[in-house]
Design goal:
The chain has 175 residues and is mainly alpha-helical. 41% of the residues lie in helices and 0% in strands. The longest helix has 22 residues. The chain is elongated, with a radius of gyration of 21 Å.
Length: 175
């Protein structure tokens, strides 16, 4: 066997391993602290029925779902809404907080296009991708990988919801 054929064989094997890892790997987002101001998703969502979009603007209509700003919190918390003593603590924390107390690092590679609004319009709920960990005030742990997305786009997950299969050609999600 010539050296060119050996090099080609080695390249092919290495490429196959990288491709298999890319397609089949299961990276998950590491769990992380909730941020500088504790936030109880269950208290806001389950108890008083707030939708994710109330705080995460853009999650139903545009590409990005944004983290709430201090002003977003103060829209509701500028008035005492309950007799809960925790409200005073929260008000004190918000008064000292930066304008953007929470930040979010993009979890998908830059070449991957994900549009929250398109998925919301198709009936995909926030919890379909983000899971239910937020109800327990656990943040992170989601599984964002190509295989998970492809399974959903092919109609292999959430069958009870009746999602129609979506685009699976490369350029639909990769730029």
């Amino acid at each position: 066997m010539t050296s060119f054929k050996w090099a080609l064989l080695v390249f092919g094997v290495v490429f196959a391993f990288f491709l298999a890892d890319f397609l089949m790997g299961e990276p998950s987002v590491p769990e992380h602290a909730p941020g500088p101001i504790p936030f109880d998703h269950a208290l806001h969502g389950d108890s008083i029925g707030m939708d994710c979009a109330a705080c995460h603007t853009g999650s139903r209509s545009v590409k990005n779902a944004y983290m709430p700003s201090k002003a977003d919190c103060m829209d509701c918390h500028r008035l005492p809404l309950t007799e809960n003593p925790g409200i005073e603590t929260l008000d004190s924390m918000l008064a000292k907080a930066d304008d953007q107390p929470w930040s979010h690092k993009r979890l998908l590679p830059e070449h991957v296009v994900f549009h929250h609004g398109v998925h919301a319009a198709a009936g995909v709920a926030c919890s379909d991708c983000h899971g239910e960990g937020h109800r327990l005030n656990r943040y992170g742990g989601e599984k964002f990988d190509m295989q998970t997305c492809l399974m959903c786009h092919r109609g292999q997950t959430f069958k009870e919801k009746g999602f129609k299969p979506a685009a699976t050609y490369c350029a639909a999600c990769h730029r």
